[in-house]
Amino acid sequence: MKKDPINVFGDWALSGRDEEMVKGHANSVKAMLDLVITDQKKFSFLDVGCGNGWVVRKLVNHPKCFFAAGVDGSEHMIAKAQSVDKSGNYFCQDIRQWNPSKTFDIVHSMEVFYYVEKPDLLIQNIFDSWLHPGGKLIMGIDFYYENKSCHSWQEDCGVTIMQLFPKNTWIDYFKKAGFKNISSDHIGAKGDWKGTLVLIGEK
User: Fold this and answer.
1) Which among 34, 62, 66, 108 is most buried, taking Cβ atoms within 10 Å?
2) Is residue 103 within 8 Å of residue 134, measured between CB atoms?
3) C-alpha torsion angle, residues 84, 89, 93, 95 (rounded to 10)
């Protein structure tokens, strides 16, 4: 029986599988951060779907980052993040409806947006309410139509919602939300693996 994504990832936090995710995503996330931070001055940072908080902890130590926070819908993931980083800024919230009390220079997300029923509305809300003017959204996903080797993942993971969209659909969502200077990249492509699809847009 398939489960809601939040429950699946809650189970992963309890079983320790979240550490495997960290290892699996580390190279893509490093490349994404390099892409979006290189030209930044001082910046604030939000990780969407922060899981156990590993990206937030990485950014806290960045010399240009003056504030880093994470948001996730899983109570177990947030509890794990807080147990490791007791002074960290972590929010357990439904990202589909959440409006943070402050806006950010960079909003980052790895492997999250396709678990949402209406990711276009989430992207619009991020543009409207989560970002400073001039702020950037960077999104990385491995589950997209052109990456054929991922197509079985929904059945493999037993998740109720996984949106298998082509690259251009995601680009259109960024455009419709109002983002400008949109760029895309593929990180870590090798053989049949098309790599992490990365989109960056500026408010």
Assistant:
1) 108
2) no
3) -110
Residue that is written with structure tokens 């589950």 in the block? 143
Segment 147-170, tens digit of pLDDT:
999 999 999 888 899 999 999 999
Closest to 147 (Cα-Cα) out of 112, 200, 192, 198: 192
3-state secondary structure of 165: coil
Burial 2-35 (b: 16+ CB within 10 A, else e): eeebbbbbbebbeeeebeebeeebeebbebbbeb
Which residues are CB-contacts of 60 (< 8 A; sequence separation ≥ 6)? 68, 85, 88
Type of residue numbered 35: L
Spatial CB neighbours of 105, under 8 Å, sequence gap ≥ 6: 40, 43, 44, 45, 131, 132, 134, 135, 136
pLDDT tens per residue, range 22-41: 677 889 999 999 999 988 89
Provide CB contacts within 8 A for 25, sequence distance 6+: 110, 111, 140
Q: What is the pTM of this model?
A: 0.94
**Encoded tokens for 8:** 């699946």
Beta sheet of 89-92, edge-to-edge order: 89-92, 65-72, 43-48, 104-110, 131-141, 196-202, 180-187
CB 158 within 8 A of CB 136: no
For residues 160 and 82, what is the distance between their CA atoms, to the nearest angstrom? 27
Give the burial class of 58: count Cβ atoms within 10 A of its Cβ; 0-12 exposed, 13-18 middle, 19 or more buried.
Answer: middle
Distance CA 120, CA 132 (A): 19
